[in-house]
Fold these 2 entries.
Entry 1:
Amino acid sequence: MKKLMLGNEAVARGAYEAGVRFVSSYPGTPSTEITESIVQYKDDIFAEWAPNEKVACEAASGAAMAGARAMTCCKHVGLNVMADPVFTMSYIGANGGLVIAVADDPGMHSSQNEQDSRHYAKAAKIPMLEPSDSGECRDFTKAAFELSEQYDTPVLLRLSTRVSHSQSLVELAEREDIPLRDYQKDIAKNVMMPGNAIKKHVVVEERQKNLAALAETSPLNKVEDNGSSIGVITSGISYLYAKEALGNRVNYLKLGMAYPMPEKLIRDFAAKCEKLYIVEELDPFIEEHVRALGIGCIGKEQFTMLYEYSAAMIKKAVFPEEVQSDSFETPNAPMRPPVLCPGCPHRGTFYVLKKLGLTVSGDIGCYTLGATAPLQSVDSVICMGASVSAAYGMAKVRGAEFNKKLVSVIGDSTFMHSGITGLIDIVYNHGANTVIILDNSITGMTGHQDNPLSGKDIYGNPAKQVDLELLCKAIGVERVVVADPFDIKHFEEVVKEEVTSDEPSVIIAQRPCALLKYVKYEGKCAADPEKCKKCKMCLRIGCPAISWKEDHIEIDETQCNGCGLCMNVCPFGAIGKEGV
Amino acid sequence: MSTTSIMITGVGGQGTLLAVRVLGNMALRQGYDVKVSEVHGMSQRGGSVVTYLRYGDQVYSPIIEKGEADVILAFEKLEALRCLPYVKKGGRIVVNNQKIDPMPVITGAAAYPEGIIEKLQERAEVSVVPAIRIAEEVGNARTANVVLLGSYAKSSGIPKEEWIEVLRETVPARFIDVNIQAFERGYQI
């Protein structure tokens, strides 16, 4: 049976068919739907959201060590977080298969950088497979588990946004019955201390050679000889763009194994071509390998290291004479950047922080949008958890007065991910920062995943809920205040008081995400033109439902969700509710 | 058959993903190779959202390039304008007459363009659909996406009954009745 599936759904299907028993991940666009799709196979696979990627990878490593086929899935920057166990699992090996699915985000649709995960395969000496479409996502996931067991190594499965989030046809098969492998105490294999690791590194290098030999003959690497004098070496989504642009007019070497790469296969392919192009998004990973073999090629001097590729740009590079210019002028259309949703609880927080003129150390989540106009409250964003630790560093060098105008903002899920360690740093090392935890009861940006603070597991079943207040107090934060960011007056008072205190403090800004099904506000807001003094205060909250129409304030009822924040901001009581 | 390319554009949260799933399942039902490219994550938060659907005997790229879309289904007028370079000369645009101000317009940094429909007509055959009004009339403003789909379906050459069967396969059962009503009203335009 054939089914239209997202690449991510197809990876989940491949894992199911490969007999996987355990999947642990932390959400991250564009990888999230892999683990969400695993949920449907709940009779055969245990799935979970872990607090962060490092924990997820370690849990999956333990499951593999104990003899099960196990998987962890993350976005490119998630692989940075899990890098520690990954590099050492390369030495330990897999026992039961261990696959790490990592989704890169060329073009940065939903990411803070554009890093190329293939470097991790080389650095950690782990094989990496790279599918192009959903059919291959399923096939390569299964192949990855075979490789993992056969060569006793974790295997990286590299996806990208357009592979993860494109749907194409997948042939479904039954689940294989893969029994648990034996677990035996094996100190030399599983305890990575110097005496053992010294010996294991030899094994890893030997494995590298064997995998490179496999790359010469593996069906994952495919030559398409169309009798052309032009050759293209490519992989992943770039292969599909190249096929679209160049059809059967060139020869292809499609590398399904992104690492290690074959030598002889590439030499033989190149020998038949007068012109050899390397078509790969982001870094010149294949290109550097080809050049190191002493083979001339056309790569990044023609293509770019930036953003996504397209069929049009490939055609322009290879057959420029065939590209017709379209004289059509791109219309002048104002940008539509993402914004905080109508009813978003973060809007109240940022409104107050901006009003108070505070320096705001930001973090990763919907609330990164607090840096966009008109709120423009956030000063800096680095990575998951950095809002807390970076603000601590700022305060240490700039002193107490600076700290009295400085806060960190971090989401509930992000705080559990890696904000808590920064808070411990503050408490332990005599810091006095104020940390605002934006507790909207869900992991928002990635599409509503539960987390240790939400009280539910990945299946929606009740789960032990971490008590945020108690947790902060247990670390040693004595000032912990819970406040509603929509009660603007009170929230402002709380922030003023906490930020000026000379000890660490935590404000838990508590209000659920407006997109949660149970969040319902009565009626819609409307501005009364009689009472409105046209002061435009309500525009300062940056609600997409509120706009200035020539000479009056208008609230778009199709967008308004009735949260009433604008009513709290209006100094003249000119905004009321309709339909209540 | 050569590849048909349909671009669906709108503002995050407008329900473009459901529309593209219906279109994808329809192409699959016709026995074609299908590729769909979706957008998830940050852009879904009220930003411009573009989804691509391509079907034919064999489809390679899931992405539609400039000047290659046979059809654009636009859920919002400004987004139709933004995607105009993608439609083939003489292609078709089905556009919701809804106007949603983007943040630069709300803050006064930019103006919402005038005369969008006329600009679209310079390059394509345009149907303007009052999808929100119709969706509200059938009882659920969130079915505007299916009203638009209905309006496109009429010119697709595929019998209405088949569309409705695909809707039944794709839309959750508890919302199916109102969605079929919305589809029918769009189809009548």
Entry 2:
Amino acid sequence: MNNRIKVFIIISFLFNFKVNSQNLYRVFFKDKKNTEYNPYNYLHPKAIERRILNGIDLCDSSDFPVNNDYLNKILEFSDSLKGISRWMNVAFVFANNDKIKTIRKFPFVKRIEIVEREFNQTICQTDSSNTDTIRNNYIYELAKAQTELFNIKILEDSMLSGKGIIICIIDVGFKEYKSNPTLQHIIKRNGILATYDFIKNSKYKNNGLSHGSSVFTCIAGKIGNLKLGLATDANFLLARTENFMEFISEEENWLMAAEWADKNGADIINSSLGYTTHRYIPENMDGKTTFVSKAAQIASDKGILVVSSAGNEGQSKWRKITAPGDAEGVLTVGAISPKYGIHSNFSSYGPSADRRIKPEVTAYGRAATWVRLGFGALDGTSFSSPLVAGFAACIKQKFPKLSNYELKELICKSGNLYPYYDYAHGYGVPNAENIFNKKITDSTTFLIEEDSLEINIYPILKETNKIKPVSLFKTQLPKYLYYNICNQSGYIYNYNVVEFKKENENIITINKSKWKKPFFINIFYLNYYKQILIEK
Amino acid sequence: MNYLKLIPFLIILISEAKAQEYIMNIDVGQDTIASRFGPKRKLNSAFYIGLGLIAGKSENKPPSEINYGRSYSFRYGYWRRYKINKFYSIGGSFEYFYKEYNLKKNLFADSSSIYKLKFSKQISNNAGIALFNRFHFSEDYIFIDLGGYITYDLYPKIVTKETSKSSGFENKKSIYVKPKMINTFNYGLEAKLTFDFLSIYARYRISEMYNNYKGDLPKYNFGITADFEN
């Protein structure tokens, strides 16, 4: 046979494989009839405590198991079971087209969704710079600055290091985390409560990448007395849910990992993963459409604070935040540049597709962490998110009675820009000082001149309102002026960051005719905030 | 030329004169551009490969007669469509279209030839474009395409292998590159039935294959193509 024909036949078989091979399906059940559930047998005492604290029914129907008879019935017609979810009352099964047609006819099946197979990178890491020892001045300074940004001194003075808090890290793998020198203090005190690999369906055995290990360092890493993350005394659950390049969707794994975290008493979930193209479009980022965002929202409703990276799509066509960062209950973290103190170009922009504020807060998008062979600086919102997750654990330790939503609100309010916000920085970088000491605001900093066409704003730096600058990496808090134009419901039309070159010529001129009246101008300058209403 | 040296100083002066710099200016209304395509966007374009067979009767037998089982075509290309509405799209494609006719007779052999024909292949390496109307059925997964195509044969050739009638083992291989008798410019009609990413196609060549030659090779070509997702 001609060689070309042989090649074609092989290729045809490969395509045919796609048609006849097993697809992954989500089979949703109509009910949970005849199932029994005892929360005290199923849930970790910490999970029960969290539910009581958040006023969640201990016998909520979503916690009941999936009906075993239903499961057995569909297993007769499917090829294998990938997993189940109590929360969504769904089984994930591999089956071919013919078999799924039979399953669809069962009266207890509510609906079936096929899981699209796509190769897609989901981790929110862009580049890594040189790895080096911690003695390297750049890495050392960066490591110091990434925690100082949150005001680590106040946290340390208050003995806050996430003690008693359980953080679940959902990631692509934690390769060699046991030999990671920044995590030895946690390993020695058995601070890793459990691990699970949802790809292999077994205890985690050093599979996958080391991305999760680097993320772990940004939550709780410590080398000597230098903290790389803030929650050094927290306990951890490690869940691997991803392959580096996604083949069959791992959103199901994310859901199962969140359930596992809930069951094991997690207070906080950190997810440095983002689901975007091929499967979804930016308009799906409304917190209600993507499977993983629905899962994250349920986790939030169970009282867990889900901290998610905003995504690294700022320079791509996508531009917007990624799932599950779009879910309402999720604390979404964008990235700022350590060098300039403002939005990092790669960090995804908000708002959510239904116009909610996203990301809510920011942290450094370049972090000093452990990168398998040594210390290095990694870029990406993957590392902003764990920095904030570590901070959240400290605040939760300080205020254990706070619900996850109250905790999220408190963190947002502690943002260095709060009450100002925009869709690149959210409320800014959370700062412990703003939680423990009331934030000073003084609107007299701004002098306003207005005529029928324009409004001129002069920020005046008075001697009395010169503030103590927050330390930034090798720099001081930049003297940027932030302002946005928004409507009465808070939706921003336009936002800006301005740097004044000359202190005596600080002026912002806004053309009033450009925006539909009434609108608000929100201005933030050196810790001072003012809102101006422009009426008809 | 000395004035040029002043340019950097002028630039510095101008930048110093600016009292403020907008580091970020984002217009959210313009920033939020609605996607033009939905989640089925991948259906709007794809690369494809295909294999086909030759069918139909030859004209002026026997010189144009072919061995059907050994004659085939190969396609590799890219198609794109623009969806007009739920039921209809227009689209086009460009492709590399390889066609090999396994001839029963050596077109160049005379009656006195001492060689026995082992094979004679007419090979065309076409670059082609096509336009089609696409009619949608069953939620964008089943289509019928009707359209036309044009191909240009970049490198036509006839490869012939013969063996000596007397000895039985003396071979002769002849390659006629770009023979003038072959029409390099061809066009025809195409119909295609698509199920998701697999298509069955049929092509009918309207143009004549040969110039100044009484006869033509079979005009039909049918086969399957498979899309690669973008």
